[in-house]
Amino acid sequence: MTALTLSTAGAATLRADALVVGVAKGPKGPVVALGAEAVDKAFDGKLATVLDALGATGADGEVTKLPAPAGLKVPVVLAVGLGGAPAEDESYDEDALRRAAGAAARALHGTKKAAFALPLEDASAVTAVAEGALLGAYAFTAYQGGEKKDKNEGPKAPLAEVALLGAKPRDKDHKAAAERAKVVAAEVNVARDLINTPPNDLTPEAFAAVAQATGKEIGLKVQVLDEKALLKGGYGGILGVGKGSENPPRLVRVAYTHPKAQKSLAFVGKGITYDSGGISLKPAGHNETMKCDMSGAAAVFSSVVAIAKLGLEVNVTGWLALAENMPSGSATRPGDVLRMYSGKTVEVLNTDAEGRLVLADALTKASEENPDAIVDVATLTGAMVLALGNRTFGIMANDDAFRTSIHEIAEEVGEASWPMPLPADLRKGMDSPTADIANMGERMGGGLVAGLFLQEFVGEGITWAHLDIAGPAFHEGAPYGYTPKGGTGSAVRTLVRLAERTATGDLG
User: Fold this and answer.
1) pLDDT of 116-133, one tens digit each?
2) Would you call 69 helix, strand, or coil by DSSP?
3) How many CB atoms are closer than 10 A to CB 479?
4) Which among 323, 300, 292 is positioned nearest to 222, based on CA atoms?
5) Backbone φ/ψ region at 159: left (φ over 0), alpha (ψ -120 to 50), beta
6) What global pTM score does this model have?
7) Is the pLDDT of residue 284 over 90?
8) Strand pairing category for 315-325 and 250-256
9) Kind and range of the H or E element at 373?
10) CA torsion, ordered 409, 410, 412, 417, to nearest 10 deg
11) What is the chain's alpha carbon radius of gyration, rounded to the nearest angstrom?
């Protein structure tokens, strides 16, 4: 994990391998941002002019490297774009700072120490820059470089140390902001590691073992239901999805409690460690990234760990519904009927609509503890990607105010989201002549149909929301901002902030 420090040193005096400054997009060219005054002075007040001559504009995430002039104790100055300059009486948008810090950290892979002289006007800005730098410094290298003869042929190591200039180490708000950023970024990166781990190594059993080891280390209560316990308990949804695989399913409960807690939350994560589609096999070109189908469970697990490390005054239980969806002679077939943990029967019309089946059992089980609210997180439907694209997750809920609160929280922490409805008329499409409900309904509005299916398994009177993160959970394109290629850790920051708001009673 990249180290983070708050430094009182000036930009002109700190020794580092690189110095990061911000540049905004102004009406007449790039504008040097707050925090870079000493650097601009070293350029004889002409840093913006030099950047303009090099073609820099200050656009969001744009990176320009310059040799440092005399007067600075670093060899390289890295100017990173912050997007449009704010009005005179306004501050920089927090996520613009987060994205810029992330882009700079990515550009500095292979560097030991970098000083970040970005605008830090308050503790919120400290959180944003710290998070962005730590998230941008992420790299998944566990399976690379094993037999390289030349060490220079392997992947570059992430930026080793970040020093935030302009923050105040003795200011309790700044110090708390930095500590929070360290915890949250570390757990987002754990979620990324889990998502990126190949499915031959991250089976349901292996994921459960990770939860057990972490729980033992930090004092969480972890319970694992194996295939025998699932059979005895009647978890037909999880067993039905996992029965085609040699790697049996698991249901994992990860619980954090605080002695002063007044509220409780349950987070439920879809954990399909590999999704072939089962008998309803996915077509060629759709299988290669299906190790990411456990991103919801990764987000739930990491968020509970972060909440525990932050010591929030709220009780939080995470439920990881883990299974591998494979075709075989023992796999569930289209037309089979499963008896769920709730007692309801489900006709399986498509075995590739498996996530809702494992979530249904976990939602019913989570409801038995009567939490104040349940949030499930899942890479659930391609329909949601078609509706909202690759960077935005959808939010459905049985309570409009709760849905609005989660949307606002997600926007606050920099995770793009959008409220989606649960149209009652779509429910009829899941009527089955054989069972209580089918796992498929109308094709149009498929993401909403999936939400309606899940709602059937939420306990009566419990506030519930569903986050479909199918778009942003796994990024296949080039990295941008603080978002890497591969697993992103989508929804972790939203869940942590939801817990913070719940703990303080500041939830809409």
Assistant:
1) 999 999 999 999 999 999
2) coil
3) 17
4) 300
5) beta
6) 0.97
7) no
8) antiparallel
9) strand 373-378
10) -130
11) 24
pLDDT at position 477, please? Answer: 96
C-alpha triplet 395, 398, 401: angle, nearest 5°? 75
The residue whose two tokens read 């603080």 is 482
Q: Can you say whether residue 295 is alpha, beta or left, with left for phi > 0 and alpha for psi between -120 and 50 degrees?
A: alpha
Residues in the chain, how many? Answer: 508
Cα–Cα distances (Å) from 411 to 301, 384, 416, in that order, read 21, 18, 6
- For 313, phi then psi, to 5°, come to -85, 70
- Spatial distance between the Cα atoms of 338 and 387, rounded to a whole number of angstroms: 30
φ/ψ (deg, to 5) at 236: -65, -30
Q: Burial letters for 402-429: b for 16+ Cβ neighbours within 10 Å, e otherwise?
A: bbebbbebbeebbbbbeebebeeebbeb
| Residue 30 and residue 23 in contact, taking contact as beta carbons nearer than 8 Å | yes
Dihedral over Cα of 216, 217, 220, 222: its sign: negative
- CB atoms near residue 144 (< 10 Å): 10
Decide if 251 contacts 230 (C-beta within 8 A): yes
The C-alpha atoms of residue 294 and residue 381 are separated, in whole angstroms, by 13
Q: Residue 415's closest CA among 315, 496, 478, 486?
A: 496
Task: List, by residue number, the catalytic residues.
Answer: 282, 356
Encode pLDDT of 186-245 as tens digits. Answer: 999 999 999 999 999 999 999 999 999 999 999 999 999 999 999 999 999 999 999 999
> 222 forms bridges with which residues in the sheet?
254
3-state secondary structure of 423: coil
Q: Which amino acid is at 508?
A: G
Eight-class DSSP state of 340: -
- Pairwise CA distance, residues 105 & 5, whole Å: 15
pLDDT digits (tens, 9 = 90+) for 402-420: 999 999 999 999 999 999 9
Cα 347 to Cα 221: distance, rounded to the nearest angstrom:
35
Closest by CA position to 303, among listed 493, 87, 101: 493
Residues paired with 185 in a beta bridge: none
In three-state secondary structure terms, 491 is coil
Q: Which residues of 430-443 are buried (b: 16+ CB within 10 A; e: fewer)?
A: bebeebbbbbbbee
Which region, left, alpha or beta, applies to residue 312 given φ > 0 means left and ψ of -120 to 50 means alpha?
beta
The HSE-up count of residue 50 (CA atoms within 13 Å, CB side) is 20
Please list the alpha-helical segments (H only) found in 118-226. 123-136, 172-196, 204-218
Residue 167 banded pLDDT, cuts 50, 70, 90: confident
- Which residues are bridge partners to 395 per DSSP? 419, 467
**How many CA within 13 A on the CB side of residue 383?**
16
| Residue 155, pLDDT score | 74
